[in-house]
């Protein structure tokens, strides 16, 4: 029983990264071992796929939120225009220094 629970837990975690074919293969293995009956297997597959899709949506939402938060913090990143202006100023200073020599 402990092995079955561990396998189901691992399967649940793996749903996020596993494809439907892998889920079906694992559930079929459980059916063959008698740990899940054939009648329940289809429902179990559907439930695990739905949980995997929901987990994936949650991960995508967290990643989007984290990305938005990192853009909204106090860090100010240089834009291409900022860098171009700095290059122009450096070029002007170098030309001035060459004239002074």
Estimate what percentage of residues fall within beta strands: under 5%
- Give the integer mean of the pLDDT values: 77
Radius of gyration: 28 Å
Number of helices: 4
Unreliable residue stretches: none
Distance between the termini: 86 Å
Task: Give the strand tally.
Answer: 0
Shape designation: rod-shaped
Order of helices and strands: HHHH
Alpha-beta classification = mainly alpha
Report on the architecture of this protein:
It is rod-shaped, with a radius of gyration of 28 Å. The protein has helices at residues 2-14, 20-32, 38-72, 80-100. Helix 2 runs antiparallel to helix 3. It has 101 residues and is mostly helical.
Record the SSE blueprint.
Blueprint: H1 2-14, H2 20-32, H3 38-72, H4 80-100
Helix pairs in contact: 2-3
Give structural attributes.
101 residues, 4 helices, mainly alpha
Care to give the gist of this entry?
With about 100 residues, the protein is an all-alpha fold.
